[in-house]
Amino acid sequence: MDVRCVETDEELADALAVRREVFIEEQGVPEDLEIDGNDEEAIGFVAYDGDEPVGAARLRAYDDSTAKVERVAVVERERGTGLGREIMAVVEDTARSEGYERVILHAQAPVIGFYERLGYEITSEEFEEAGIPHREMRKPL
């Protein structure tokens, strides 16, 4: 697998295609919530298996010392292969290199355990985003 920062329009289109497959088609998230106009101000990530995009994420500033990890997605056939860990490692390394001290994210309830295994701690009660239960989680870098 090859996880990289989005640098071209084609790579952004590939990341958006993964997000569309996972969030819009599979989970039923409304398109206007998923494609929210914030990709311009974010650092995007896309994972490839050969030439095929199979994972995505993005990172945005939350405050001066905190970055927010968003839109972490792995296509169904690649789940459980370690790709999610690889994506998160690249995202966290990028946040460190950008000078952030910590990262936060809104984890969907079914994948909280995944993030806990990566060192994230729950910092909120359950709340709903796009009709899906989430919890805020944080990790120091």
Looking at the overall shape, the CATH architecture is 3-Layer(aba) Sandwich
The count of domains is 1
Largest sheet: 8 strands, mixed
Helical proportion, percent range: 25-40%
Q: Which CATH class is shown?
A: Alpha Beta
Mean pLDDT: 96
Question: Helix count, per DSSP?
Answer: 4
Low-confidence stretches: none
Q: Tell me the series of helices and strands, N- to C-terminal.
A: EHHEEEHEHEEE
Q: Say what oligomer this is.
A: single chain
Could you name the CATH homologous superfamily? Gcn5-related N-acetyltransferase (GNAT)
Could you name the CATH topology?
Answer: Aminopeptidase
> Would you report the number of β strands?
8
Helices and strands: which structural class? alpha+beta
SSE map:
Blueprint: E1 2-5, H1 9-26, H2 31-34, E2 43-49, E3 52-63, E4 66-74, H3 83-97, E5 102-108, H4 112-117, E6 121-122, E7 127-129, E8 132-140
Parallel strand pairs: 4-5
Antiparallel strand pairs: 1-2, 2-3, 3-4, 5-8, 6-8, 7-8
Structure commentary:
- By secondary structure, this protein is α+β, with helices and mostly antiparallel strands.
- The model has no long low-confidence stretch (mean pLDDT 96).
- Strands 1, 2, 3, 4, 5, 6, 7 and 8 form an eight-stranded mixed β-sheet that branches.
- 27% of the residues are buried.
- It has one domain (2-140): 3-Layer(aba) Sandwich (Aminopeptidase).
- The protein starts with a strand and ends with a strand.
- The radius of gyration is 14 Å and the shape is globular.
- It has four helices and eight strands, in the order E-H-H-E-E-E-H-E-H-E-E-E.
